[in-house]
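Our working data are protein records whose layout never changes between entries. Instead of coordinates, the fold is spelled out as a row of discrete tokens. Here is such a record, shown just as it appears in the course material:
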Amino acid sequence: MSSTETGTGTHSGSAPTPIKAVPLRHPWRWVSAVVVLALAFLFIWGAATNPAYGWDTYGRYLFDTRFGTAAFYTIALTLLSMILAVVLGIVLSVMRMSSNPVLKSVAWVYLWIFRGTPVYVQLLFWGLVFTIYRQVQFGIPFTDIQFIRFDDTMVLYSAFWLAVIGLAMNEAAYMAEIVRAGISSVPEGQAEASTALGMSWGQTMRRTILPQAMRVIIPPTGNEFISMLKTTSLVVAIPFSGELYGQARDISGVNFQPIPLLLVAATWYLVITSVLMVGQHYLEKRFSRGATRKLTGKQLRALADAEGLTPSSLAASGAAGPTVTDQPGGNR
């Protein structure tokens, strides 16, 4: 009897039989991966062996100094246009949210025109602006008093700055909506609390509204910045051919090999946009601090040091957010 009880006790106190977990198999996932890789290999092999791509010409012009200069002009066009677009977009967004019906109407008409017409058509008009307005006078209307007079505005013609203005005027319409959406995403109670603390309108915007709105504004602004870089290829409508696409078009017009020159321009565009995408990632990460309860590696290490644990053990315990310690009395 005792032996039976002992045996039973021994059996009941022994460790349970380990579960034999069989991982879920995905045969079609591997099949699809093999098919995709095979198709990619065939495409790359076909492109590498196709003489129409002109890889020797591609290699000869990839690091040509003319494309280096064109890359500089492309980046300059992008930066200057985006700076002007952001400034004008902020002004337009404030006008859209204004209680003044005149300002609101003017901003709406601006957005309606520049968002409703193609940017290529707008650039064509900017290229012809000095043809449309050959003479410009600044003074008091309906009098002979003139402060500034240009009898031939063509002396002011600059294809580069016309390209900057044309791109900025178009982009400002989109930036105005992005800024307006970001400001509108901040709860009204934030502005009311700031006003209750005695902050002025400027202080409220600078210290309360904009820091919270940036989390919404930065991602689409980064996308618009990258899109602007590629939109610079349309400034040939002005015409300005100093950027990447214009340079590729001019060179291909001489050697009659457009495909390898377009590949060179595409490679430069890919390199620049890749750098901008990395910068956008870190910028978004900075302004999204505090928007998620998931701890970063630095925060997890600091919390582990405070709890006297290792980061791995703390993560394994299920700490997904800031730990709130129990206060005397059982309240959290």
Confidence is low (pLDDT under 50) at residues 1-10, 320-332. The first strand starts at residue 136 and ends at 139. DSSP finds 14 helices and two strands in the chain.
